């Protein structure tokens, strides 16, 4: 029988999620936001919770995995404005939260209303 303990100091030091330079607002800042948050997660050793291969939760769930996943989820959520937060309120895991934001915002950009986007050759 093995007993797994949460990482040291978890009961004494409250976790303060790292903050990105700018919170996720919409598709216009998703690309830079996701790169920065991914780096914040990596620096805090939390990036496996969003990696599509390693992010699959071990079965049975270990206390350490759950603890790290909860920290990663908190980091993602505190770095979102209200619109993206409304998309992920009911996500069941860190990986599904990350993937929800990715599928909703990645590759989308809003065009400024005064910018003409050419669909055929443009001249002038």
Describe the structure.
40% of the residues lie in helices and 0% in strands. The chain is built from four helices and no strands. The radius of gyration is 18 Å and the shape is globular.
Overall mean pLDDT: 81
Based on the structure, what is the oligomeric state of the protein chains?
Answer: single chain
List unreliable stretches of 5+ residues. 1-6, 112-118
What's the helical proportion of residues? 25-40%
Order of helices and strands: HHHH
Largest sheet: none
Write down how many β-strands occur, each being a DSSP E stretch of 2 or more residues: 0
Radius of gyration (Å) = 18 Å
Strand content: under 5%
* Outline: globular
Which structural class is indicated by helix and strand composition? mainly alpha
| Gap between N and C termini | 74 Å
Number of helical regions: 4
Region (Disordered): 1-27
Protein name: DUF4219 domain-containing protein
Biased composition (Polar residues): 1-13
List its traits.
4 helices; 124 residues; mainly alpha; DUF4219 domain-containing protein
Any chance you could write out the topology, listing elements then pairs?
Blueprint: H1 30-43, H2 63-78, H3 82-88, H4 94-105
Organism: Terfezia boudieri ATCC MYA-4762
Protein name: DUF4219 domain-containing protein
Region (Disordered): 1-27
């Amino acid at each position: 029988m093995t007993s797994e303990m949460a990482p040291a100091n978890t009961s004494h030091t409250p976790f303060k999620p790292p903050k990105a330079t700018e919170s996720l607002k919409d598709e216009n800042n998703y690309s830079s936001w996701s790169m920065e948050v991914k780096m914040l997660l990596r620096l805090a050793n939390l990036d496996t919770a969003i990696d599509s291969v390693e992010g699959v939760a071990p079965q049975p769930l270990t206390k350490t995995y759950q603890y790290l996943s909860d920290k990663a989820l908190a980091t993602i959520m505190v770095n979102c404005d209200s619109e993206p937060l409304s998309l992920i309120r009911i996500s069941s895991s860190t990986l599904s939260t990350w993937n929800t934001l990715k599928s909703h915002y990645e590759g989308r950009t809003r065009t400024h209303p005064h910018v003409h986007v050419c669909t055929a050759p443009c001249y002038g």
